[in-house]
Write a structure and sequence with these properties.
Rossmann fold, about 40% helix, binds NADP nicotinamide-adenine-dinucleotide phosphate, 7 strands, seven-stranded parallel β-sheet, alpha/beta
């Protein structure tokens, strides 16, 4: 069994790779930087996990096409790599104080480029390489704005990703395929993306290790989750209710 996880050199992606690896999956560890990717592979291999680096830079379409061409019989694709706003290396953490009117079109374009266009390009090119019962997993976020939560670029890009989840799921179902695509919302996780600490906000913020376990548990469920957007506690988000199921 084989799994490719994007953005797996650190954070949530690394922990998903570690958890799937511990369960016997051969890990294709996707990262945009070879040194950071190989360092993460070495950590997994030191834990007796079968892992190898595969270059996946969501802003470099050639790497996406090359990676797709190198993969076959893929059982799990986890589209995990993502950014909160800017695409600059060493980007600052998610800024929840940024005013909606301060987002430039370039902020939106850059975030869409990584979180949606790059992810779509990779997924589409991997379709012929999926095994019959393959699962495509999109790591996502709540997209309904609240007083506290309304980062325009981030939620716009993930909303597009969620629609991709629903429409791909519809095509799988229509074709009678056993393949699945679903989204997982891990909740607030302490990573470089937000600069938060595990346990903050009265324990609301979880560690990336906890996120890796939760996400892996949902991925490996025997249930048909095609077309679902699933929260960390297993609850299915119904804002996106469609006619895919039933
Ligand atoms: N943290 C949370 O609270 C939270 C909650 C819900 C969903 N998520 C989602 O979880 C996913 C992982 O985030 P995280 O919190 O683990 O953040 P993170 O620690 O910053 O990790 C992000 C990963 O994405 C990679 N990445 C960024 N831009 C890329 C690009 N253009 N091409 C390829 N890889 C790229 C990063 O690579 P580099 O190391 O090279 O920068 C890194 O490996 C994201 O999709 C995020 O939206 C996070």
């Amino acid at each position: 069994m084989k799994a490719l996880i994007t953005g797996a050199n650190k954070g949530i992606g690394f922990e998903i790779a570690r958890n799937l690896g511990k369960r016997g999956y051969d890990i294709l560890l996707g990262a945009r930087d070879e040194d950071r990717g190989q360092a993460a592979v070495d950590k997994l291999v030191a834990e007796d996990i079968s892992a190898r680096f595969i270059k996946v830079d969501l802003n470099d379409v050639d790497t996406l096409h090359t990676a797709s061409a190198r993969v076959d019989s893929l059982d799990i694709l986890v589209n995990n790599a993502g950014i909160p706003d800017s695409v600059k290396p060493g980007h600052p953490p998610l800024d929840l104080t940024k005013h909606t009117f301060d987002y430039t079109t370039e902020d939106l374009r850059a975030t869409m480029e990584t979180n949606f266009f790059g992810t779509h390009e990779l997924t589409q090119h991997l379709l012929p390489s999926l095994s019959d019962k393959a699962k495509i997993v999109n790591v996502t976020i709540p997209i309904s704005p609240t007083d506290f939560w309304h980062p325009l670029a981030y939620i716009t890009s993930k909303a597009a990703l969620n629609i991709m989840t629903l429409t791909y799921a519809f095509e799988f179902k229509k074709a009678g395929s056993q393949r699945q695509i679903f989204g997982i919302m891990p909740g607030a996780i302490a990573t470089d993306l937000n600069g938060m600490e595990a346990g903050a906000r009265g324990g609301f913020v979880k560690s990336s290790e906890a996120a890796g376990e939760i996400i892996t548990h949902i991925i490996l469920s025997d249930k048909n989750q095609n077309g679902q957007i699933i929260q960390y506690d297993g609850k299915v988000v119904t804002d996106y209710e469609t006619q895919i199921r039933g």
